[in-house]
Amino acid sequence: MERKTTLLLHPYLILFIVALALIITDPFDISPVGGKEFTPVKNDIAPYKEVMQAWPADNLSRLGQGSLVFENEVFGPESLEFDLQGRGPYAGLADGRVVRYMGDKVGWETFAIVTHSWSKKLCMKGNDSTTHKQWKVEEICGRPLGLRFDKETGDLYIADAYYGLLVVGPEGGMATPLATHIDEEPILFANDLDIHKNGSIFFTDTSKKYDRVEHFLILLEGEATGRLLRFDPQTKTTHVVLEGLAFPNGVQLSQDQSFLLYTETTNCRIMKYWLEGPKKDTVELMANLPGYPDNVRLNDKGEFWVAIDCCRTKSQEIFVNNPWMRSVYFRLPIPMRYLARSVGMKTYSVVSLLNEEGEILDVLDDKKGVVMKLVSEVREAHGKLWLGTVAHNHIATINYPL
């Protein structure tokens, strides 16, 4: 009787308990993660203070001195390529096409598509292609991400988020699927690739749980079901090279192809996988990063450009180390954009040049988002850095060296 009276004297306590129970269980699926098996885990990430203190700053924000090109002509051009004749750039777009630039007189033309399901009416939404309006049709239209030309044949290999690994000839057209499943399970989120001199294609499958539309949940949950895969053109089979990776993303072979780099976006780092030598088949850390890496690309000197959405924050560090807090916080009935902002998830672009040992050679950033708020790839070609982005409707360039 005394206990019942105590509860009645504290009605706000009862309301709090009920509200907390509703948040944790989210029975009406009204939170940003409603209806998902959202089970956050602790990430394997280097300490915030250790990384940020060691990272050099670009006090001049030199990346912001670049130029926007092809505004509202390309939509979400994540990966950029140049063919064997130096023509381009080529870009994979959010509307499902791979396009190429044919000069000022011709402009951009459709070079390839990845599925017979593609149609102009359904898939081409112009500037809206990089918004949620495209998400409902992405799985039908395709979403080309990583692009690479075979330097021997001129064929273009494509990692598409929904249609796996594909290839199209030098003249373009309908791409041919190479790897869509492994061990009878679908490749859910093919992301980037590179081509070995023996013909093997190394590519990432970012998650076995979430597809590209739900990529943000991979980061929030910290789940590590991603894989590094290898397609063997001789046997036309796909093999698992590494698994249990946290958002594996960009892929890049070294100049001598003795090792391969891949980025782990969730863990803010670049990893090195040895293909040859005494360390063959082993993995080691290449570099911890101040933010979330996407693609990594080689320049003519054998150095590596990495695109980073920056930067980590102290509040994010708390969430990383306390999965239960993420489980409660992201079940609040508040739109994701507001939840993200409240914990400091405001991003800007950073590109960094590293040598083979992971030493930092140069850092350029754009803190004010003048030319790029979100960067997916940086390519050094024709005396410039070319910046691709999965989120915006333009490309950015900056003369380099400055």
UniProtKB/TrEMBL annotation:
<feature type="domain" description="Strictosidine synthase conserved region">
    <location>
        <begin position="191"/>
        <end position="277"/>
    </location>
</feature>
<protein>
    <recommendedName>
        <fullName>Strictosidine synthase conserved region domain-containing protein</fullName>
    </recommendedName>
</protein>
<dbReference type="InterPro" id="IPR018119">
    <property type="entry name" value="Strictosidine_synth_cons-reg"/>
</dbReference>
<dbReference type="Pfam" id="PF20067">
    <property type="entry name" value="SSL_N"/>
</dbReference>
<dbReference type="GO" id="GO:0005773">
    <property type="term" value="C:vacuole"/>
</dbReference>
<dbReference type="GO" id="GO:0016787">
    <property type="term" value="F:hydrolase activity"/>
</dbReference>
<dbReference type="GO" id="GO:0012505">
    <property type="term" value="C:endomembrane system"/>
</dbReference>
<comment type="similarity">
    <text>Belongs to the strictosidine synthase family.</text>
</comment>
<keyword id="KW-0926">Vacuole</keyword>
<dbReference type="Pfam" id="PF03088">
    <property type="entry name" value="Str_synth"/>
</dbReference>
<keyword id="KW-0325">Glycoprotein</keyword>
<keyword id="KW-0732">Signal</keyword>
<dbReference type="InterPro" id="IPR011042">
    <property type="entry name" value="6-blade_b-propeller_TolB-like"/>
</dbReference>
